[in-house]
Amino acid sequence: MGKWRYGVILDAGSSGTRIHIYRWLNSDKARAKASSGELQSLPVLETDKSWTKKIKPGISTFGDNPNDVGPDHLEPLFKHALENIPPGEVANTPIFLLATAGMRFLEPLKQKAVLEQVCSYARKTTEFQLPDCDLHIKVIPGETEGLYGWIAANYLLGGFDKADEHNHGKGHHTYGFLDMGGASAQIAFAPNATEAEKHSNDLTLLRMRNLNGESTEYKVFVTTWLGFGVNKARKRYVEALLQASPEAEELPDPCLPSGLNVTVEGKPITPGSDEDMGKKPHILGTGKFSACLSQTFPLLGKDAPCPDKPCLLNGVHVPAIDFDVNHFVGVSEYWHTTHEVFEMSHKDKAYDFHTYQERVEAFCNQDWESIKKGVENHKWGKKVDETTALEVCFKASWLINVLHDGIGIPRVGLEQMKSGYNNTKAVLGHATDKGFLDPFQAVNKIGDVEVSWTLGKMVLYASSEIPAMPAALAVGFGSNEPGIPSDFQYAGGKYIPLSGDDKDTLFEDSPRRIPGLLIFLLIVCVALFILCGRDRRKTVRHKVRHMFSRGSGPLKHRRGFGGKLFGLGTSPSYERVLESGEGADNFELGEVDSDNEQSDSSEGSRVGRTSGWATPQIKAGFEPAAPAYFDNPVTQGAGLGLSPPSVFNNPMGRGGLMARTDSRERLAGSGHRSRTGSPSRMRSPMMTPLKESVD
């Protein structure tokens, strides 16, 4: 086990599967390098843009042909992972495939068949750590996805580790999280103290662990709206158009640019098709954005029954949101639709409702021919093609309705905050410079790291690998109850000690050097023993018999060939470190050297009660025992730093010709004591930790 730990997560969304690779320092290494402040923080995870890869379409499209999901879909993703993870660490790397909204719509039998094929293919073609397919390869509920996203956003923003720098008032220092993909939307936030007490039964208890082994707990509200992603919302919208005019051949749509004719599926009408011949209805764009906002509003379901008040969308209960302290970041479609078209020239600007709506109206009220010319001239950027331009007006109206009429985000630029929030500027400054203190900000990356729920999952996993302090509870989440609730979802990681070869830089390149070096020393010493002559061999044999005939006591080394080989002075006495007991508990090795896209979005983006974790449930108050498949016992320090046995020590005294033959009785009787410069009075330089090279 090397100093780096790796983890692989495949985000199987509705539009495609995106693989993410993360790495973090082994907890022993991280703790040895950490400052006092860093010890009170979560593990530091790293990733790289090149470690991410997406394949389209989603795995839900293999429902009728599950056998094809491996060779046609997963093969390039697994190949990508194997190209970026050191071969020696593959077997130690856990892999997860967590499916979101696309697979949630698939009927159970087809869903099961696809997941079984994913597991089978992964086990046949890779050596990744995959002990339990039911836990590592599964469909996760939207609540789980939302909670992971909340962890990722606060982890990157510093809401966990730097509470003083993110004081939003009323003792609140975390950020809310909004995610919208193609099929579903999620919200996750920590209510203020009043709402948290009032709705305690609705909250999820989340527990993580800092590097020093201490637990941290958060109470988060998480919910999901299935069918409220942009693609599903568009589908519901078109169905409403058809129901409103069942006999019409042409359906006017203010959410499409004027002059654009498409099928009800949003595809171009081809000559000779049923739509072209008038046998099937088609959609005609009229390009009136204000009318589009009005017609998409009913999709929010604001009039749906609310059995547990308060509710936001479609009768789903959500505690009241205090926007004085709850500042939200939005990912996936919240970013794509607010920035990729309308913010190309100043993409880091904070979200401003007034300015945003003006830009949307100016774009969507154009006719289709003008928009096509703008696309051809890259007026809105190289990423904006005709399909993006065709869809963006409906998406923008849907996001505006969800944010402001659905969730209730204040319309910065039009509405005043209750606390006198300063919003006098028409366009707010850079979101990052403002510390994300606006009611809502759309983000894609924070500190060059993409805000993905997959990061939140892996932060939780890495956190669970840290050895716990006494009385610290398990890492994971579940119902908001003291201790370990019955539905607690364990994070699944296990403390893995740093292996012996990584603790000594002399041998860290290859563990084979240790036995090889010992064999080499043995051969050299034997050769010298043979060449030293009969008298010297006799003296050595005498000393060996003399040494083993004495009573027990600390083992002592004199400077012999081993000391000369490594340029060492005298070799002092040392006591063996026991493998267990008091001595072992206090033994500390020197530190070692080391090196260091998301939900079901239609374009790819960024958590409930279930997850892909493999640690079994145990009694409250204890970290669960890891299952056998994580067991990887390592004997630490075996054979490291030991000079050759005293049988090979130089038998020559200070005269250079004869060895001392004073008996133990004579020495004892004369009260002989070692001189200050005697080898037995010094510490062994072989037990001094080797210096490391600078990382």
UniProtKB/TrEMBL annotation:
Keywords for this protein: ATP-binding, Hydrolase, Membrane, Nucleotide-binding, Transmembrane, Transmembrane helix
Entries under InterPro entries matching the protein: GDA1_CD39_NTPase (IPR000407)
GO cellular component, one term: Golgi apparatus
One Pfam family it belongs to: GDA1_CD39
PANTHER family: ADENOSINE/GUANOSINE DIPHOSPHATASE, NUCLEOSIDE-DIPHOSPHATASE MIG-23
Lineage of origin: Eukaryota, Fungi, Dikarya, Ascomycota, Pezizomycotina
Composition bias type Acidic residues, residue spans: 588-600
Positions bound to ATP: G182, A183, S184, A185, Q186
Organism superkingdom: Eukaryota
One BP annotation, GO: CTP metabolic process
Protein name in UniProt: Nucleoside diphosphatase
CDD domains the UniProt entry points to: ASKHA_NBD_YND1-like (cd24039)
GO molecular function terms attached to this record: ATP binding; GDP phosphatase activity; ribonucleoside triphosphate phosphatase activity; UDP phosphatase activity
Region entry Disordered, spans: 586-613, 641-695
Family per similarity comment: Belongs to the GDA1/CD39 NTPase family.
